[in-house]
Amino acid sequence: MASWGELAAAEPRFAARVRERLDAGVHKTIATLRADGSPRISGIECFFAEDELWFGSMPRARKALDLRRGPRFALHGPSTDPPEWDGDAKVAGRAEEITDPERKRRVFGTRGGAPSPESHLFRCDLEEVVLISLNDARDRLVIEHWHAGRGGVERIERE
Q1: Contact assessment for residue 40 and residue 57, using Cβ atoms and an 8 Å cutoff
Q2: pTM over 0.85
Q3: Which residues of 132-151 are buried (b: 16+ CB within 10 A; e: fewer)?
Q4: Domains of the chain and any CATH numbers
């Protein structure tokens, strides 16, 4: 696994484009695992600070409790409807909950202020990052993907 900063250092253009897609809208979708192993989809916001990808949660929200129990997640960035569609960003990995009050204040402070002290804060370790877009002619789907430990971004095009 890798931090956002490690991805950005190794693949700066790819990371910048993924970040642009994630920052294109506030609301994202996160998939977590329920106690019985079934998937849960929830709305979430993510942000970048200290060379990391973060997300927070209201106190005792189901998605936060899911991540405490099992840290695996998949995050899908905001998307627009065609014909304006510019692409999608997806990130999968493991979330580490940060419980240190000072670090939570500092990281949440990068967004203009800290929510409730009981709010959850998660730092993302990346296993897979995917960027989906169209080619310049807008007639083929372009899929770029990076996987921790594989080295480099792979690109495929589909009709």
Answers
A1: no
A2: yes
A3: bbeeeeeeeeeebbbbbeee
A4: 4-133 (2.30.110.10)
